[in-house]
Design brief:
Blueprint lengths: L2 E2 L4 E4 L4 H9 L4 E4 L12 H10 L3 E4 L9 H12 L4 E4 L4 H13 L4 H10 L8 H7 L4
Parallel strand pairs: 2-5, 3-4, 3-5
Antiparallel strand pairs: 1-2
Length: 141
């Protein structure tokens, strides 16, 4: 269920409370929630996932991404999350927003767009929706 982008981060569709324990057994140390509360009232909400994460000793942060797009503060928050010495699991409804936010964070740090696209593609995700932003943020690398 978790799709590995690189050794630092995996992404996933919506996780369950049981998936939190699975993430820990797979070496995850930080869960990043990119799904806004209320998007699917039947899914575990932020506070529930956070409580489950903390109960098994995992760190947790929420960087909710709505369907309206990505912002500079969200990109910076993802950069900060990835800067720590943690193995990250980021999730949203399908894993796409998590992957796209990771892509933008990588680009802002100067990673080559083709490498970002390759890694995302290996995990089954297409960065085409944000490719122009990735190109711009990377400084044309």
């Amino acid at each position: 269920m978790f799709r590995k982008i690189n050794d630092k981060i995996s992404v996933s569709p919506q996780i369950s409370l049981d998936d939190v324990a699975t993430a820990k057994t797979e070496g995850v140390t930080l869960i990043v929630n990119n799904r806004p509360d209320g998007e699917d009232p039947g899914a575990p909400q932020s506070a529930e996932i956070e409580a489950a994460a903390k109960a098994v000793g995992l760190k947790y942060i929420a960087i909710p991404i709505t369907h309206s797009g990505f912002s500079g503060p969200q990109i910076d928050a993802m950069i900060a999350a990835l800067a720590a010495d943690d193995k990250v699991l980021a999730y949203c409804r399908s894993g796409t927003r998590s992957t796209l936010l990771w892509s933008l964070a990588q680009a802002k740090q100067g990673v080559a767009p083709d490498e970002i696209s390759r890694l995302a593609g290996n995990a089954g995700y297409d960065i085409t929706p944000v490719r122009a932003m990735v190109d711009a943020l990377s400084g044309g690398q």
